[in-house]
Structures are given as C-alpha cells and as structure tokens.
C-alpha cells in the first residue's frame, strides 16, 4: 500500500486538472519531468497501437520503464485525461470506454506531476502524493524506488510486446524474495527458480540512489545484496528490469556525449544461468516445449533440435515443433524403418521420461525408441536408457553433460505409412496366386493339393480362434498397458473401494505394487460394449493417443472375455462437483484457473487433437482435479463407444437449462457446440459455486441459475451472485466477464455460440467479450432440459 509522503524537497511541473494528452504519430504527446530525463505519455508500438508509458527521454532508444495498458494497446486519437474532478482516465477511442489508471488514488487530487526520479504522481493541495507509478511497477524499478511485501514485477511477453509475460519477480508477504515462472497466461506463481530464503524477515527491496539493490529487514538490516554499483551515479542512468526471458538485469547507461552514451550495458543479473535454474515438471520452462536453452554470458539462447523448427520466429519462448509427420501409433512397427535416431551430444531434456531401463546397451535403447510411437527421444548414459515423449521439457545445451541424446526424426520427407510392408503383402499375394494357378493347372498334383488346402484352412481357423480368445490382445503401436482381469482384481482388492458410479460404468480405486504403489482409477464399462470387441479396441486406441494437461490420461485397458475395463490416472482431489458444492467455498483464483483449464481441454478435443472429439457429457462429475487442482476432463471419447444417448428429461419450469444442449431434443446435428453449451452452464456453476437448479433456493427467481445470472447481469446486480464470496467481490469486473461468456455459450442456436477457441481467448483476455443478447434469443419459454 502507498504511504503518503511530503515532496517539498523535489521540483516538478504541475499538470493541472483538465489536462490531457492525445495519442499521435509524433513525440509531442507527453508530459516531461523538469530535467527532461523522463517523460509520460503515448508511445507507438510498431503498427499495433499506442502504449501509455513512462520512458527515459534523453537517450535515443527512449527505453520504457512503466506502462499502463500493455495488454490492450489503444489506437491513434485515444486520450489520457486528468479530469476536473481528479480522476485519471485512459479513453480508448475505438470502444469509447474509459479506464481508470489510478483507481487506488484517494479523493482530493489537485494536480499530477512527472518527477525526475521517473515517478509519475497524483498529489493533493498539500503536495502529498496520493498515487504514484512507483507503487504499481510493471517490469522495471528505478533508483529511489522500493518494492514492499506483495509487490511484483512482471516480465513483458516479448521484447516488443508489453503485455504480461511468463515470469515474475515478487517479494512475498512471508518475506521471501523470489523469481517465478507463471502458470501462463495466468499470473499465478508456478515454479520458483531463484530465491533469497528469507521467510519471516524480508521487508523491502530497495534500489538506492547509489545504485545498489538489496533486500532489507524491517529494522533496515541488509539481508541480501542483489546488485551493487561502484560506478559514479552522476554519470549514469540506471534501471533493473525483469526481461521477457526471465532474467532480472541491472542496466547502466552513460549520460552525455561520450562515445558509448545512450547505450545500455548489463552490470549484473540473476539467476546466474537461467537455462540450468529452471527445471519444472510442467510448463514451458526457459525456452518453451521441445526446445534447447544455451547460456551465453547471461543470455539464454533458445534453439531447436534437429528435425524441429520454432513455433513462432517472433516469440522464441513458445518452443519448437516437429517439421515432419510423427510416427503413427496404428502401425508403429511398420513405420520403424521410416525413422532414424540422430545423436546429439551435450544435450538433454530434464524430465519428460515415461520409462527407464537399466543395464542395457545403446543399440537396445535405440531399437526400443524406434519401435515405440510415443518415444521422441532416448537418453543413454552408462547402461541407463530413458525414453521421453512429447512435449520435451527443460531442454539444455550443457558441455558438462557426457551422455547421449538420440532424437527421433523421419527419414527424408516421407509421410507414407508402411509402404514397404504393403508392397511385401502384395508380392506375397501375387506369389500365392501364381503358385495356385500352376498347381491347379495340373491334375497330377491333385492328391498333393487337397491335403495342403485342408491344412491351410484348419490352420487359419485355429489361428483366428487363438486370436479371439487371447486374454490380453496387443494394440499395435500403443503405449497403453494391457492388463488381465486378475491383475485388476488384485490391484483393486477385488473391486472393494468404489470411487463413483454412472449410467454406463463403475469406477474403483486401485494400486499396483509393481509401480511404487501408484494409485489408478479402474473403470468397468457396462454391458453396452461387452459384445463389441472391435469397436472397443478401435476407440481405446484413439483415446490412448490423446495427451493434454487438461485431460485425464488413459494408462491401460483390459479386454478379456466379457470384461471391458479402462485404467486411468487417479485424480487425488476428486471431482469438480465435490469441489464446488461443499460448505467451504473454493477461492476465486482456483475457480478461474479451473474454468480456463476446462476450456483449454475442450479446445484440444475440438480442434487440436488428431481427430475431432465431441465429449457430449460435460458436467461437474466428469471434471476431475489433480494434486494441483488443475481441471482434467474425463470420459472423453466414450460417447461413441457407449453410443451415448443423453437423458431427455423435460420439465414445466420455464427456461430451465441443464448441461444438455437444445439440439439433442430437436433432431438437429450434434456438433462440438453441444460441449460449448454444457461449458456455459458449468461456467456459471463455477462462478457461483451452486448447482444449475436448486429447488430450495431462497427466492423462486433464483432456482434456475442461468436465468438468475442473466437477470443479475441485466439489472447490474452481479453482487447478488457472490453472497459470502468476498474474494470474488473484489474482482467483480472479471467475474462479470465470466458471466457474459457463459451467457454467450448457452444461446439456443448452436451457430450463434462461440467456438471453444474463442471462449478460451475471451477467458485469457486476448479477445474482448461482446455484450450478451436478450434472454429471448437463447431461452425457450416452453419446456426445456435439466
């Protein structure tokens, strides 16, 4: 919180009430400090728009040190104004909307000023600062600036994109100073990669006028020196910036007319080697998925391994993608000859291992990876072989690493599947035809031919029978484990602990002693699929190839006799239903994270996996939560397998909407938009922590959540949806946005509903949310579904 202080010792130019600046294509739209060293105003960022910012004004580069609208640039003609009543507003001419820049400023603002320290302030008649840009830093701190408990610096997204990026620097309320990766695009601290270990003692980060940056205790004791400047401060501009690559750098720049004036140089930086510092089990790490990070004098250089190219040349932190068709899991063994392993020395990816073998040869390791469609690279050192799958995490180039990494690459530009195998089969078939013709043409061979034919027929019948009764059929190319029924019976203690039961399956908790006691969820499917072995194998094969952080992973299956069983990851925090509809209300941040994760999972199923999947049964019971309360969609891909037919419950209550989209009841084609509808209903439940229909609601108009939410939105009474939820009340604008998105998702006409891609972008804040329509455009006043 900002502490008012006197400013009588400083000189500045008052900016009076009623003053304004307009975003123009020149350098005149700014307010300068008395010395002219800093300026406040609009800077044009390429062709994207204008940034309201503070910058060093006397160097050619005009380095920006603070910004107000990095996530939402405004077009030319937009205006910033200190209004007559003391409000400081940014007006976006494209939308006509005003945004308060200093919403925390107290009443009584008399003027503004751009100080020579780089701090832009709002002050009252007594020259007491009511608000300052120093109190809301973006990615940079300056001499004379401090960071208090809870303060944060956010790295920008790229060198030229000033929206929030993937890293943050924060002094936690506990007193520990840390650098974090974030759960991007959310700003929640994800994994720390540098810290001071000062829990209980850290109080302020101080950047003093001498150019030293340090962490101090409440009594002023220096706990940790981040950077120390021994150069003459009078000759230097200084700044400390958390750059977009996650490195906090202390920069200096000489003033005046000397040869190197106006050029920033790095005085110090933390961490000492970001490539080696970041090693996290989830997320893109220092350079993104499938990439390699090479440290070079404080700079992480992001590269792609052989066979890969950058996802986006303008954003190297997005990682790398394969520039060839991946190995097919349908015909992995047939495709083995189409790939080779390229050796890469001094290279490794920390994590990503899904299997490890000891006491093997390098050749064995190579052949195992080539035959495994999930293997993208194999690590080998001293008889140990690690198989790693996509995406590859925490890639480093490290000269001290003496092992080998063998990365799988498709030969040439071949995208054909099993061409050699097919040719062989055709040749074998042709040979049999020729031989048969020769034999049949000679009656002398008749006595020889009949016994041969009989033998071949009997052998084929027998081989088919053996295949049918095979207790654990092999699904070629799949990295799924095939379990016997007895194995699953033992793992579940004879199916003792039931986790849940639905219309089509029952789920039990299991544990395999051979896998370090790892818990699993064992789903026994009902009789609908017992007599459909071919379809079961086909659908399990399809589900097994799907991998996403917001989907529950299928680990294995059982297809023995009449038993059709699926084995999934065990989700320790249960279902979203038990999480939302309990006495203690989950915090608002967790609910937002769950909503975004759910949207991303559905986007993957609809648009990003190899074949489009419509879930058809999105509801809280089918959304599970892992150890980190990450939303994980379950039962995807089962709609086709179970020939799911939604329960078509009707009710006389007006406008009741359940998870089932209206098109189910109108004989309309079922598309991905049915999942969008279900998501909209579920999003409202996540926002309000209550079920879609509550017969025991306090008021009759509150029984149907969707109707009540729209009424509250229309009447500007959003607070009524957040009873006893003070945390969400503090973020009511964001909550209102979520309600608007939900309303857009439950339009009756599926063509008018947004795609899950657009929904995800709206939740992330990348795309603006349009105003929802009148209820009549999506509510059927007759009967509807629960």
Automatic annotation (TrEMBL):
One GO CC annotation: membrane
Domain Protein kinase positions: 493-779
SMART domains referenced in this protein's UniProt entry, alphabetically: B_lectin, S_TKc
Membrane-related topology note: Single-pass type I membrane protein
Binding residue positions for ATP: 523
Enzyme class (EC, first level): transferase
Gene3D superfamilies in alphabetical order: Bulb-type lectin domain, Phosphorylase Kinase, domain 1, Transferase(Phosphotransferase) domain 1
UniProt keywords, alphabetically: ATP-binding, Disulfide bond, EGF-like domain, Glycoprotein, Kinase, Lectin, Membrane, Nucleotide-binding, Receptor, Serine/threonine-protein kinase, Signal, Transferase, Transmembrane, Transmembrane helix
EC numbers for this chain: 2.7.11.1
One example GO MF annotation: carbohydrate binding
Highest taxon, organism lineage: Eukaryota
InterPro entries in UniProt: Bulb-type_lectin_dom, Bulb-type_lectin_dom_sf, G-type_lectin_kinases/EP1-like, Kinase-like_dom_sf, Prot_kinase_dom, Protein_kinase_ATP_BS, Ser/Thr_kinase_AS, SRK-like_kinase
Catalytic activity annotation: L-seryl-[protein] + ATP = O-phospho-L-seryl-[protein] + ADP + H(+); L-threonyl-[protein] + ATP = O-phospho-L-threonyl-[protein] + ADP + H(+)
Keyword Zinc-finger: no
Subcellular location: Membrane
Residue span(s) of domain Bulb-type lectin: 6-135
Family membership: Belongs to the protein kinase superfamily. Ser/Thr protein kinase family.
Name recorded for this polypeptide: Receptor-like serine/threonine-protein kinase
Species of origin: Prunus yedoensis var. nudiflora
